[in-house]
Amino acid sequence: MEIDHSDNGSFTTERPLEVENFSPPSSPEVEGGHEEPIRAELYQPKLPRQVLSEVVKTHYLTPERRGRTHRILAEYFQGRWSGRLKPAALPGLKLLLSDRKVPPQPLWFAAGLANVRKLQELPYHLLHAGLWEELRQEVIGSAEWLYCKSRVCGVASVISDLDQCFKYMNCSETGLVRDALILMKPSLDVLSGHMDQSLFYSELLARLSSLSSTFCAVIGQLCRQCEDWLQMCQVPVLIPKSSFLQQPGGALQHTLTAPYGGVLCLDIDVAVQLLVTGSAGGVVAVWSLEDKQLVHALQGPPGAILSVKIIESSTNCLSLAADGSLRRWSLKSGQQLLCIQEAGPVGPTPSSVHLEVSDELLFVYSWTQVKVWRPDGTEIHLGSSEDASLVMGVLGDSVVSLHGSDQVRISDPVTGTQIGVKLTRSLTPVNAVTSPNHGKMFVVSEDGFLHQISRTGKQTITQFPLQPSLFSVSEDEKILLAGCEETLSLFNISSNSVDRFLDLQHDDKVLSACVSSHCRHIISGAADQLIRIWSVTTGLLLDALCGCNSPVTSLLFYDGFVVSASMAAASVQLWSLTYDARHKPPAHIPLGSAHAAVAKDGDQVFYVHHQSQREVMSWNNRTGSLSERLAVSAEVSCLELAQHKRLLLCGLKSGTVLIYPLTFPQETLCIPPPESRSLVLCLAVSSQEKHLAIAYEDSVCLFEITTRDNFPTVEGPLGKATLSLLHAPLSCMALLPDRRLLYGTSCGEVKLHDYSSSESSNLQSHCSSVTCVTASNWGMHALVGSQDGMQRLWALNPVALDHTMEYKGLFSEGVLCAAFSDSDQFVFTGSQDRTIKVWDVASGERVYNLTGNLQDFISEKQQKLKSHTGPECQRLPLGSTDETTSALFPTVHPVPRSLFMFGIKILRDSVHQLHLQVQFCLYSSAPPSSSSGKLLYVQYVYSPVVRMVTFRNGFVALSLQGSVIQEAFRCPDHINPDHNPLRTIKAQYRVTSSERDRDSQQTCVCDLQDFNPARINLNFVSMLRTKPSSACILL
C-alpha cells in the first residue's frame, strides 16, 4: 500500500481535498439487459485517498516517530550523514557502525548549480523536528541561504518559508527578516533570476543594520555576514554603514509593483479580496489581496486608464480609457467582454471625467457631456437639450445638469421624465459630489456658496469660502471632505445642513483623502509624499507614514489597511494601521526641504523646510529630533557647511550672508550685501576652508576665512569676478585651493576664473543646465554635471578634459551632487534617477601642485598632515638629518595601498621672495590600468540624492526623502575586465577619454628609484635667487 502524506519536506501548497462519494445503484444491470446478483462488497463506498492517508498517519506515525523522521532528514540535508559512520541494525546482526555512502549536501554543487532539494526541504524538516536553533542559524540567520534560495526559487518562496517559521516559532526576529524581504521583493522581482549577490547583501544590510544591536541573535548575525562578505567581495561595492532604506516592522507591509506606468485609479472589492488598478500605460492590473500576487494584466488601449469600477457581484470590472473607450473585463478569466468606443471624451485628465454605475445603467460624464448605456452595451440617447447643458453629476439613475446659471434639471434617461429646480442664486460650479443615501448633490460655486440639491428638487444654499480641488464624501456619507491647498476641511452632513467641524493643516498640497470604516480616522495624502493619520474626534495627528517616494494621489481604506498609489509611480502600497510602534522608522528631516546641508559624519543636518521660511533648523540625526532653530532676517537662498571649521553659511535673498560658528552657538557673523543688493545665488568653500566664494546675480566675490583670538573671522572681498547680466544666472560653483573658481550656469556654460590674475576662460559647454560642480580634495580634478546626465571630468593643472561620461537609463539621469573619495581616485555621484554611481577618476599616477611660502607651507602642512595621522598611515624614511627637510615631510596621507612622494621647485616672485612649489605624486601599488573614467558601481537607493560629502573611504549623503546615507566604498586591487556594473540595471553608459601626454610623469617614476633625499641641501637655495629654477627635484 502506497501512502501519500503531506509531510513531503517542502513548503508547497496542497491541492484542495476532493472527496469522492459513491453509492450502490438501486437496480444494477449487466450487458444484455439481464439482472444478476452483485456482491455487496463491490458497492462499499471508497475511502478518499487523503482521508486514508490521514488515518494511517494517525495510527502509525506518532509525534515522537514523526519528529525522529524529520530529524534524520534534517541531518541528511545538513550533511551530517556524509563521510560518517552511522549505526545500522540489520536482521540477525548486532548494532554496528557503517558508512552509508551518503553524498555531501552543500548549498551549491558548483557555480550556478544549487542544491534545490536542500533549499526546498531543509527548513520544513528543521521546523517540524523542533530543531529551531539550527533553523535560526542555518536558514533564517544565514545570508547565503537567503540569497541562494531567493535567486533559485524566488523571493516569494523564502518569504513563505519565513512566514511558516514565524507562525510556529513566534520569533520576532524571524518576522522582521520576512518583512525585510517583503520590502525588497519588488526590486528583486524585477531582476528575476539575475540577482547580484552584492546587491542583495547591501540592500539587506541597509534595511537591517539599525536593528542589529537590538536583535543580536538572528539580525545581528545576518548583518555581520553581509558586511564580512562585502568586505571580501572581488568586485567594486558600496557597503552601507547605516540604515537608510525602509526598515521592516513598520507600517509599510507590501508594495505591489507592475511596470505599466503611474497608477491613476484603483478600486477594491472586499468580498473577493481583489484590487483593480488603472495605469498610465493602458493596463488594468488585477491583484489578489490574499497572497499579494498579480492575477491579471489586462491590456487595453495604448492610452491611460482614467477610471476603474468592480461591478456585477464582483465578477467583472469596467475601465474607462483616455481614448474614450469603455471596456468590461472578466475578473475570473481576464477576457474582454465588452468594448464601447467613443464612450467618453478623448484625452481628458482623471479628475475631469467620471464613471458611475447604478443598478441598471452605466454613466460616463464630464462637465460638457454625458452618455448612458445599459449593462449589455445598448446606448440610451439623450435629448439635444441635455447635450447643451453643464453636467454636474449622476444621482441614482438620474442625471443632474445645469442650464443657464440658475436652472437645474434632474433627468431620468430611461423614462425621459425631468424635474426642474429654479435656483435662488446663480451658480457657476467649481466642484460637485453626490450623496446617494441622502438623495442629494453638493455643488461648490465660484462665488463661495455650497448648493445642496436633492432628488426631489429641494435646494439649500450656505456659505462655503473654499474652492476645493479635492471634494468627496465618506463611505457612510456622514462626512464631507474638502481639500484646498494645504488644508483638509471636514463637514458633518445632516439632513438639512452641512457643518464644518475640523480643519487639518498639511505641509504641502492635499491630493487625496479617505475615512476609515469605523469613522474614527481620517487618512490624507499630500504632495510631500506623506500619508497622515488623523483623529476625527480630536483632530490630532496620530501618525505620519513615510516611504511613498512620490506624491500620494489615491487612497483607500481596506480592512485595517491603507492602500495608496501615485500617478508618478508604478506601484501600490499597503500600510498597516496596527503595526508595532517600536519598529517605527527613525525620524528624519522633512521630505523635499528647500535647502539642506549635512555634516561629514552624518550626525547633524541643517535645513530650511519651505522657501518662505525664515529660520534654519538644526537636526540631530542620532536622536532623530530637532536640536536648534537659527533665525534669519530674510528668505534663505542657499546653505553651505565648512566641515572642518564648523561654520554654517547661510545666503539670503537680501544679499546678506550669515555665518554661524557651530562651536560658538551664541555668535553670528554677517557679510553685508553688495551695493547692487542682489540676492545670493550660491556659496562655495575651498577644500582647505581658507577661502569663501559668494555668487551674486552680477558678480562672484572672494573672501578669506581666518581666525582672531581663536574666533573665526571673514575678511574681504579679496577679489571680484563680474558676471554679465546678458548671460544665464550662475547655477553652481566650486572654489579651488589656488584661488580659482569653476562655475556653471543654467544655460550650460562652464567658466574658470582665476582671482590671482583676474583672467577667465571658457570650458566646453553643456547642452542643458549645469546642476553640479565639484572639485577634488586636492584641487586637481573637477566634475561638472548637467541636467541631461552628461558629466565631464576636468584636470585643472593644466586645464584639460580627461573624460566625458554619459549615462542613459529609464528615468531622468540629471546629476544632482558629487563627492570625491579621500584619495581622489574615485568620484561618487547622486542622480535624479535615484541611484548612486561610482566612477574611476584615474589609475596609477596622479600629480598635485601647491604653491606658497616655504615657512608658511611647512608650518601649515605639518599641522594638517599631523591631523591625518592614523593607524593606516605609513611613514616614509627620508634619510636626512636636515631639520627643515624633516619638518617638511613628517608623515604621509593615510590612503590604503598607496604612498605619497614629494618634489620641490624653487621659484622667485617679483620682490625676490623665495617660494616653494611642492609636488605630491601618488603612486598606487596597483599597476596602471585602462579603467580611467570607467563606471564601477551603480546602487539604487529609492530616492534622489541631493547632497554628498566625502567621509573617510566613502561618503555621507542626504536624500530627497530626508534620510542620511552613509556608505563606504571598497574596490579590489584588480578588477576583472569582464566586470559590468550594469548587469542588473537597464541602462547604458559611454566614457570618452582624451589622449594626454604622460611622458613627463613616467619620467618622474623612473627618477624616483635612484634618488636619495639626503642629497638635498637647502643651503644652496641662495644660488637660485638670480634665476628661477627649471628643474623639479623629486624626493
TrEMBL record:
Location of the region described as Disordered in the Swiss-Prot/TrEMBL record: 1-35
Residues spanning the membrane: none
Statement: the UniProt record of this protein carries the keyword Nucleus: no
Database matches in Pfam families: WD40
Per-repeat ranges for WD: 503-544, 763-797, 815-849
Record bears the keyword NADP: no
SMART domains given in the database record: WD40 (SM00320)
Keywords: Repeat, WD repeat
PROSITE patterns reported for this sequence: WD_REPEATS_1, WD_REPEATS_2, WD_REPEATS_REGION
Name of the protein: NACHT and WD repeat domain containing 1
